[in-house]
Amino acid sequence: MIVLAWIVGVAVVLAGLALGALALFTAWTARQVQKKMPPRGRFIEINGAPIHYLDEGSGPVILFVHGLGGQMYNFTHSLLARLRRDYRVVILDRPGSGYSMRPAGASATVDAQARTIARFVQALGLERPLIVGHSLGGAIALALALNHPEQVGGLALLAPVTHPPAHVPPPFQGLAIASPLVRQLVAWTLATPLSIKNRELALTALFGPQPVAADFPTRGGGLLNLRPQSFIGASRDLMAARETLDRMPPRYQSLTMPVGIIYGAGDRVLDPAAHTAALTANRPHTEVEWIDGAGHMILISSADRSAAFIVRMAQRVAEADGTRGSARESVEP
User: Fold this and answer.
1) Contact status, residue 195 vs residue 225, Cβ threshold 8 Å
2) What is the residue extent of each domain of the chain?
3) How far apart are CA 132 and CA 157, in angstroms?
4) How far is residue 52 from each of residues 42, 91, 96, measured CA to CA in Å?
């Protein structure tokens, strides 16, 4: 019994040392990443927490909402330079993502994030912008339009989530942790080294069948996902998503603003046909575009096509606003 107790004690000590070493490695990695990729925008307080955002260019406003595990660098990689000459481009880090904070007790549901973005739109005085949402950001853009239609001029959805997927996509399965305690433990021990080990598989799934952008870790913000707070925020987003997504599809028929959707036909993360159908079945006049041979990260790997789609949707918003303005004038005494 004494020998057994000694063995157990040694095992506990070794496990503690291993966990401590992993936590130190995680903290060191996070510091190095933040030195290399510091905040590049401004901060504004929304709901008592700082929201990090970029505001460049002039003209009609386009507001970008990134996907699960993403941040503003996803859009600054390729789309910002293509659009800021003719548009005012506003890109935010969603709560709990990038350099934006989310209070510990705050909800991470799609509805809650849409509510935060609605208050962000109000705070910046953005007048009915075109909302561009990628992946989970597409679902949040849809929730924003459903719940706060007066603040949305139109929707340009890039490979969006429109309904709850049957299964968690492979690149995000490691985020499916329901327990907050386990989530914190994994974030500070295993998440960073496993992300480094599996990065090629994850990136191939995200970009495939197109090649992975070689500069995605830096210009695209991929390195920021090595921080524990990024893992925690993305895990909370994933686990809270279904709560709202289940109720959204039947409401799509109520959307009156211009709505367009573009998908890579070879998307390996989401089912393009299923997510397009979930929207168009309830809103048949939605504009749909496909990119042959493209994957999930079309905002980077098919930036020209994505930018052209966004410009076309911005023009549709301008036309719709002009029609509304003419209608208002016609009824004025």
Assistant:
1) yes
2) 40-161+169-326
3) 6
4) 6, 9, 10
Q: How many CB atoms lie within 10 A of CB 100?
A: 25
| Amino acid symbol at 211 | P
* Band (16; pLDDT cuts 50, 70, 90): low
What is the side-by-side strand order in the sheet with 88-92? 42-46, 49-56, 88-92, 61-65, 130-134, 154-158, 259-264, 287-291
Number of H helices, E strands in the chain: 12, 8
How high is the pLDDT of residue 243? 87
Q: Which of 223, 238, 231 is nearest to 188 (CA)?
A: 231
pLDDT score of 14 more than 80: no
- DSSP class of 209: T
pLDDT at 3: 52
Say which residues have a Cβ less than 8 Å from residue 48's Cβ, sequence separation at least 6. 103
| Pairing relationship of beta strands 61-65 and 130-134 according to DSSP bridges | parallel
Q: Using CA atoms in the order 12, 18, 22, 27, what is the torsion angle rounded to 10 degrees?
A: 70
Q: Which residue has the tokens 């959707």?
A: 261
Q: Which of 157, 327, 145, 156 is nearest to 253 (CA)?
A: 145
Q: What is 40-161+169-326's CATH number?
A: 3.40.50.1820
In the chain, which ranges are continuous DSSP H helix? Answer: 2-36, 73-76, 79-83, 110-124, 136-147, 180-188, 191-197, 199-207, 228-245, 272-280, 298-301, 303-331
Q: How far is Cα 130 from Cα 132, in angstroms, rounded to an integer?
A: 6
Q: Collect all residues with Cβ–Cβ distance below 8 Å to 201 and sequence separation of at least 6.
A: none
Rounded Cα distance between 177 and 237, Å, is: 11
